[in-house]
Specification:
The protein is an all-alpha fold. The chain has one domain: MetI-like fold. It is about 65% helix and about 0% strand. The protein has 14 helices and 2 strands. Strands 1-2 form a two-stranded antiparallel sheet. A hairpin with a 7-residue loop joins strand 1 and strand 2. The radius of gyration is 30 Å and the shape is globular. It is a multi-pass membrane protein. Its main location: membrane. Pfam families: BPD_transp_1. It is found in: Cell membrane.
Length: about 325
Amino acid sequence: MTAQAPPPAAAAERPAPARDRAAPGRRRPVRRERQGPAYIFLSPWILGVVLLTLAPMAVSLYLSFTDYNLFDPPKWVGLRNYAEMFTEDPRYWRSVGTTLLYVVVAVPLKLALALGVALLLNSMRTGKGFYRSAFYAPSLLGASMSIALVWRALFNDGGTVDELLSGVGINTGGWVADPDLAVFVVVLLTVWQFGAPMVIFLAGLQQIPTDVYEAAALDGAGRWRQFVSVTLPMLSPVLFFNLVLETIQSFQVFTPAFAISAGKGGPADSTNFYTLYLYERGFSASHMGYASAMAWVLLLAIGAVTVVLFRTSRSWVFYANEEG
């Protein structure tokens, strides 16, 4: 009998070729040969950002330091537009006050209504999908000019709302023509579009574990205590997200104010929102340099408000992965 050769253990333990091992202390070179197709696919987005966002912003910043009437070449005037805005234009400050009033009133009302409806839908067993779609529909339609015109007709003198209020002895003569009530027509139109934050609230409510409510009930917590101590803290990130989005959007309100005031901000500048006044100075009065300065002040103001919201959120927004 012939003896069998032992298994080639040495061959099995043979080290890998030198080209497959990285030398100690050296990194493998990053492969860049396949980044070309990525940039090709990203090029439409990059071109869109540069041509439709960054370039117009740069031009607008330059025009804010010029006197430009859309027809003649812009003339450099330095900070004159900003000085006139802050010291010589009372209508500018009225537009700021009107916009702040709208933001302070509309945003809390819209979020409160959205959260209330989301709580009701979350407790429903049947028909949740239908009602969710029905309540979300105004968010899709409310931003259109046609809906804003219908809203104006409802609150005008002799409109449906005026007739209903007159039937119970409240004679307003139409909200649109009343300087004290006209801004609330825009507020109600905004609050009516609560569907988008409602859907986000509903998604957040469905992520709260039911055993948390069961534990709170065993401790003797009622519905209100569960809402304050369980629902709001666990929903605070969603609430913060909706608050930031709605605040930014409210500072930029334009279409409802334009439609309800017929583009004039009346009566008595009561609906002359910031963006509507910006449009008037830029396109109606052909002071595009002044309008550009207003746009940049609005951008800085929204940025400052957003920073304040993020800073203050540390004291009332709680995330699941936080300790303590």
